[in-house]
Amino acid sequence: TKVYQHIREPAQRESMAASLALLQMAKVDLMSWHGVRNNDATMDVLKEFKAAGYTRYVGITNAQQSRHAATEAVMTREKPEFLQIDLSLDDRASEERLLPLARDIGAAVMINVPLGHGALLRKTRDMPLPGWAKDIGATSWAQVFLKYVLSTPGVTCVIPATGNAEHMMDNLQAGRGAMPDAALRKTMVDWWENLPA
């Protein structure tokens, strides 16, 4: 679960306690500091929460490229145990600095918005799958896009966010079979970049 970074004490502690109460849990596996905004923010409250035994791991989240610099500053100083960040075939900015930094500090990485808020699927809706999709066992566009993200070095897991059981079953298939290697990942990026606007 998560607590918003921009709220101040004692609201952060109250929010985390409320999350445990709502979940009816004494402890969670992950407590994240949601929506990093400030370069100088510290994770002291989260670290205290962990030291008190309320969570196994503490980390940070961000889903806006405009906040990547703040995220990088906090990661460098605070060394979170996990990072939740945006990454998709049409938004690869986190590959440049944040994912390598996560690897350097040993942080697990959860990817959000891997389907670009549905933009990738809307753009390819009426297109046939490219021939190389068969090489990785992808039978849908969602699987193509999820396999790109899953094959990114340093990525631990992907959260595609769907409320549709059929889509969930299709998304799960992206975790099966071959993953794109570096050469195919480059092919995928080139293919995407050359699609008509």
Account of the protein in words:
The chain has helices at residues 11-23, 44-51, 68-78, 98-105, 119-124, 141-150, 165-173, 182-193; strands spanning 2-4, 28-34, 55-62, 82-86, 108-112, 157-159. It is an alpha/beta fold and 197 residues long. The relative contact order is 0.10. It is built from eight helices and six strands, in the order E-H-E-H-E-H-E-H-E-H-H-E-H-H. The longest helix is centred in the first third of the chain and has 13 residues, at 11-23. The protein has a six-stranded parallel beta sheet, covered by helices on one side.
Number of helical runs? 8
Strand order of the biggest β-sheet: 1-2-3-4-5-6
Largest sheet: 6 strands, parallel
Kindly state the number of beta strands.
6
**Quaternary:** single chain
Keywords:
six-stranded parallel β-sheet; elongated; 39% helix; alpha/beta
Give the topology.
Blueprint: E1 2-4, H1 11-23, E2 28-34, H2 44-51, E3 55-62, H3 68-78, E4 82-86, H4 98-105, E5 108-112, H5 119-124, H6 141-150, E6 157-159, H7 165-173, H8 182-193
Parallel strand pairs: 1-2, 2-3, 3-4, 4-5, 5-6
In short:
This protein is of the alpha/beta class and 197 residues long.
